[in-house]
């Protein structure tokens, strides 16, 4: 099975063809299978990330034919092209810089105090949102996140991106749904979402989660609805 792997080194990009050796005739390999075999055979210096069995799920995300996929979950086919996700700055080969999103949320994921009733159960949507694996596939085609690259992505990433994305909104919505948070904490979470560019979502066709979370229905629309009333 022949696939293409996009390499990025010293500011240059190159497409390399790799012939994956099937372990059995009926095998349907995942993207990660191809990358691991390539690194173990003809491409020992191939740079990519994966956190399987290390509780670091989501970091193996790459693009396949221009669309983000979690490498350990997505199958690869003859002629597919594997490349770094196109929504974040590339460091080397398939490795992208992820810390700009984390830095953005560093001072925004705090609750203001804590409610007195510690026996409250969170709503169903709260549990649905905690299924996020931080793969950042939701950044694809996000107009809010795209604003971060208008004046130089590297400088923006170093200090934390100015504008948000579906992932950052999801984290803030979790705070809003947390039964242990206070009303002041929920208001601050919404204010943070607005500061990150929540209003951009009004004209967006929608975002897609790598693990199937309903981002529009459980994150974006509830926030927009509350924002309209304030």
Description:
The protein is an alpha+beta fold and 230 residues long. It is 32% helix and 13% strand. The chain has eight helices and seven strands, in the order ββαβββββααααααα. The strands form two sheets. It has a five-stranded mixed β-sheet, with no helix packed on it. A two-stranded antiparallel ribbon has the order 6-7. β3 and β4 form a beta hairpin. The chain is elongated.
Keywords:
230 residues, 8 helices, Fumarate Reductase Iron-sulfur Protein, Chain B, domain 2, alpha+beta, 2 domains
Question: What's the story with the biggest beta sheet?
Answer: 5 strands, mixed
**Which fold name is given in CATH as the topology of the largest domain?**
Fumarate Reductase Iron-sulfur Protein, Chain B, domain 2
Over all CA atoms, what is the radius of gyration?
Answer: 20 Å
User: Outline, from the CA principal axes?
Assistant: elongated
Taken together, the total number of domains comes to 2
Strand percentage: 5-15%
The N- to C-terminal Cα distance equals: 56 Å
Stretches where pLDDT is under 50 for at least 5 consecutive residues are: none
- In the sheet with the most strands, the strands line up as 2-1-5-3-4
Task: Please name the fourth-level CATH homologous superfamily of the largest domain.
Answer: Alpha-helical ferredoxin
Instruction: Name the helix and strand elements from N-terminus to C-terminus, one letter apiece.
Output: EEHEEEEEHHHHHHH
Helix/sheet category: alpha+beta
